[in-house]
Amino acid sequence: MTQLYESLETYLEKTKAQREELYKWFHQHPELSLQEAETKARIIKELETLGDVEVVDVGAGVVGILRNGDGQTVAMRADFDGLPVKEDSGVEYASTVTQVSDKTGQEVPVGHMCGHDMHTTWLLTTISYLAENREQWSGTFEAVFQPAEEIAEGGKDMVAAGITGKIPVPDVMLGQHVMGALPLGHVATNEGISFSQASTVKVTVRGVGSHGSMPEKGVDPIVLSSSIIMQLQTIVSRELPASERAVVSVGTIHGGTKSNVIPDKVVFELNTRCYSQEVEDHIHASIERIVNNQAAAAGAPEPSFEYSDRFPVLDNDRDVTAKVTESMQTLLGEERTETFAPLVASEDFPDIPNAFGTPYCFWVVGGFPTPENAPGNHSPQFVPELHPTLEAGAEATVAALCPWLAV
Prior knowledge:
Structural class: alpha+beta
Shape: elongated
Radius of gyration: 23 Å
Largest sheet: 8 strands, mixed
């Protein structure tokens, strides 16, 4: 079991410059969700250089399959989309990319401000290492490169494109994410529910337009929306038990064009997060109840609701996670291996293993020298330390693979 891992240090040292160049290329070429054509093409190019890797096109994503005799099948996922965020990291390889959004039609700055470039480099490193060290493992490895994690559509896209019929059913699926909340180079796992499920709710509050000096002739959707937004804050504080963790946040609000014009509508968007479908259903029903009732009380036209960015709860299989954790403690060392409490962050990683009915484990990797000062994911400053982060994710992956693939 340890031979597969012990050869990794030499490989990582030998390929340091190559891996750094690859990561910097991804970092400097971010693309928005479901618009990642150049990124996907580079991933395919890298897989094809390995020779005997089968490259399977799956919707907007791609899978590299490396077969190496009898044994179990393990899938590992990396996401590769960027964010509409202007980078402000100060690194010499910072992104200066802009892209026209398919969703809005507007040109926006794009940056890899959530570490997906690091995840992609880790996975390409892993499959390259396995291809070069076949004598130390047996089975099948599937490198799943997934688009559009940021909008919770990438896993769904690959499932809709037929991934469950295009690649062998994995016995286990693994994933990881770089974060700033734990020490540089450390790895943390958690058994059971680990990431919250989440949704975006777009609410359109309708009114009756009028002159600002004649509010009695209209129904003011700005005043109405203000009242609604305040009332929405009581869902968590007054409708859920104190032991239940949940979030209801209003992140955008748009309405009106001029100070003396009462508009005919206001649009705002909420983000909801919790750890069970039952609680999410309750929150969404409460949102609709509050909005509809306050609109009716104001004599306003009927509001409307749109749901999107729906992330599943991430529930790590306990047996799989126990094996992964034990292997990491043995090979990385207990001083680098931690556990984490359930996060209110969300991930669409479970969509693909859930489609297969495959148990999974997803862990986090520290990428910043001082966690207390590290920027949060999606911050314009979120750029992990190059080394040893580039090595840590590969080390964690190979350690996690050992219980299933090592000979």
